[in-house]
Each structure stands twice: as structure tokens, then as C-alpha cells.
Amino acid sequence: MISIDNTTDCTLDTPMLEAIADALTQREIELVICDDATIAELNRTHRQIDAPTDVLSFPLAGEHDHMPLGTVVIACDHARRKADELGHTPDAEIALLFIHGLLHLLGYDHETDAGQMREREHTLIRMFELPESLIVRTEERP
User: Under CATH, what is the fold of the domain 2-139?
Assistant: First the structure.
């Protein structure tokens, strides 16, 4: 189940996001959709990076089935720009960012693992017929 807090005018494909969440966990997830200024403030406060970003994940401590898994925060402004740049829909971009953030909540870390997160992302992208993954896009940067 997803609890959504959308503070923007961004429309969401809620059934797609619910299906993605259900494919990965039965625990509750909070999804926050915000603007660049809000995510920049969160990035500054929690990661000491003074800039907006696309997605942040905040896992909750504890592994009890009845506890929420955590929060995924996505910047709608970023999702719209990236979707326009790459030629797909904002809904597809938000779904990609949600997959990425949710995998982080589940303990995956593409910066330290041996490709497990990338592999899991690819599986989910194929399953939900989405464009290339966030990890692939960042790995291809010079």
C-alpha cells in the first residue's frame, strides 16, 4: 500500500505505482511528490548536498511486517524535465524514480553492490514496460 502526499500539480499513475510497490513488498510506503525547492532542502539537510535531486529514500528502522518501510520523495519538476529530455512521459519517469527509491528502501545500494540493484531495476523495467533505468543513465555519463 502506498500513502501519497502530492504537494504539486503533478498527476500520478497511481495504479502503476501500486503495482510496482506490490511487486516488491507488502509493507506500507509513503510517497511524497514535491518541487525542486523542497527536495533541495531535504538533500541539504539529510545529505549535506546543496542542490536539488531527483529522488530520495528514507528507510524506517525496524523490519516488522506491520511497520511502514519508509518514504520515497520524488521531485515532480525534475521528473517532467527528464521525461521531456528523454522523450517519455512524466508518469514513466516517476515510475522509474519510484522503483529506484523503493529499491533503496529495501536495502539495495548501486554505489556499493556488485550490480544487484541494476539487475533488479532491469527486471522491474521489463515487467512494467518502462524506459531505461536511472542507474543505466547515470552510469553512461562521461
Answer: Collagenase (Catalytic Domain) (3.40.390)
Global confidence as pTM: 0.89
**3 has pLDDT over 60:** yes
Tell me the angle at which helices 36-47 and 76-86 cross, rounded to the nearest 10 degrees. 110
133 burial level (CB within 10 Å; 0-12, 13-18, 19+): buried
pLDDT tens string 50-89: 999 999 999 987 666 678 899 999 999 999 999 999 889 9
Q: Which sequence spans correspond to the domains of the chain?
A: 2-139
pLDDT, averaged across the chain? 89
Output the nine-digit C-alpha cell for 10. 503533478
Q: What are the grid coordinates assigned to 61, written together?
A: 528502522
Closest CA to 96 of 66, 77, 64, 74: 74
Polymer length of the chain: 142
